[in-house]
Amino acid sequence: MLTRVFKLAENQTTIGRELQAGLTTFAAMAYILAVNPAILAATGMDKAALVTVTALTAAIATTIMALLTNYPLALAPGMGINAFFTYTICIGRGVPWQEALGMVFVNGIIFLLLTLTGIRERIIGAIPHALKIAVTCGIGLFIAFIGLKNGGVIVAHPATFVAHGNFTSAPVALCLAGIVLTAILIARRVPGAIVVGILALTVIGLFLPAGGNRMVTQLPASLVSMPASPEPVFLKLTFQFLTRMNAIMLALPLVLTLLLVDMFDNIGTLIGVTKRAGFLQPDGTLPKAGRALLADSIATILSALCGTSTVVSYIESASGVEAGGRTGLTGLTTAALMLIALFFTPLILAIPAAATAPALVIVGVFMMQSVVEIDMADFKTALPAVLTIIGIPLTFSIAEGIGFGLISAALLALALGETKRMTTFGYLIAAIFFAQFFKLPPF
Which of 178, 228, 353, 362 has the most CB atoms within 10 Å of its CB? Predict the structure, then answer.
């Protein structure tokens, strides 16, 4: 039944490979179960309830994506957007978290309308093909950078912004060894190389001191725990900001920013992961793009109702693709593990960052391999592509990296009189990014 429903033979995959890929994706993104509640709790939301809601929304949204598209995409509350929700909307602007959830809901309704009218699909079509490849590469650099940061290989520095970490510390040394180990396993075509690497590093971490009496891998006090009730945040969204004109004017730029960042983070991830999986057509079109965007729109509405910031497609889905995932069965596996994790949260959280970081670095290398498809000999193609590739990791935002690329491509085309290099919709999107970057009305 699974073979027939998910068209495994047609996609040249097997049940075992899909299950393994789903496990790989889950291992790469399980950190969200701890990180998302930690960020959103700063708004006053109940942290225990947020753990439950994070897992539930990830599982439901990923299942919807799997059933609608049969793509190996996993979804969960987005990193970056959750920080914007907490530190800009709630803390920076003084908006109660209940009202902020209302803004996320309005954002989701707009998303749904844009999807049903086909506008979001036209936005994907407005991105030049070379930029779509550049997005894939930029996300690859982004993932690799996140991996190196999580593993302590790269650290912040007041003078040079970044510098290398302490290579003699056990966690960093384990991460570096893990990169080499995983690379060797992949080069030798060992099945499940990424998962094997994560598990091996987790076990080794049990015997490596991280300072004091702590080991790199900490054994949890208990293996099983009951999930907390989502009631403190479930259906708590409010819409007072829609009842007063001054509140509407305060909310408008916040909702538009949510819309812009969310839309292009999702589009960028969708392009990057599906390109790596081989679904993106040579002309840059994506089959079932409308269904994927519909699933994403539903996920945004779902997140507001359940009580968390926007749920988005996860770039860590690329790790499952590299492990062989090609169908929605990968996503369903990840979704099931999210639900199971609610009962085994202590065990899941015991996997150290040093064990998952090498997987992200390796996936980043895989995604960067697409750079050879960009015509770097043509400067008019190379400049927007390179700005996109470096803009994504350096701004820590997929959306802003795409903005750099589209603005530069539009300005070059207009200045050189080659206006047909981009569509009218492409120029419009570039103009919106320009207005957002320079804080022009209504941003």
Answer: 178
